[in-house]
Amino acid sequence: MIDRALLFLRDQLNLYLSRSGGGAGAGLEEPVAFVDGDKLDPLTLKTGAVNALLVGLEQDNVMRSDDPFSRVLADGSVVRSGPAIRLNLLVLFAARFHAYEAGLAALSQVLEFFQANPLFEGRSSPALDPHIERLAVELHTLPTAEQNDLWGALRLAYHPSLLFKVKMIVIRDSLGVPAAPVTDRQMELADALQATA
User: Fold this and answer.
1) In 80-183, which residue ranges form alpha helices assigned H by DSSP?
2) How is the beta sheet containing 161-171 ordered, strand by strand?
3) pLDDT of 83-128, one tens digit each?
4) What is the pTM of this model?
5) CA nearest 13: which of 167, 164, 159, 168?
6) Overall domain count for the chain
7) Which residues span the domain enclosing 58?
């Protein structure tokens, strides 16, 4: 699920950058690229591109339901399943170009794209994976000390970059079992237990 969300965002950005003539995407096969999996230790950013890199995940508990172990399906039936995990992704877009101003221009276009397209949903974005309900993208600004910690953890010198929080990837238990209906006897037993307590 995480991979499909990031691939979707990368592909949408590449489409936008390649269509905006004369900008960062001009003449580049892939203006926004993921880092090479073989070059993670030490991390090497691709030159001549905006590098997209997942730098953190956080669980979002705000949208948690009252009963996290039950889920209502589209047909109205209730199944018992593991609670849905709602994730926010922290995605870093770091520009590495030979010409410093080209990197700044590329980041400006990335920012413009997400400013114009902060929300992606299945009905408006058919390329979005059907298992992903929506993606909301917002700029996430770190204080200077935390930026320093991030670049130190990556073991890289600072590059012009933008950090975005991508909300919300929902991972659900796909093997839910039908929930047993609550009977009158179970309710009477629960009331009797509360009365004796």
Assistant:
1) 100-116, 144-154
2) 32-34, 49-59, 85-96, 161-171, 134-139, 119-121
3) 778 899 999 999 999 999 999 999 999 999 999 999 999 888 999 9
4) 0.76
5) 164
6) 1
7) 2-196
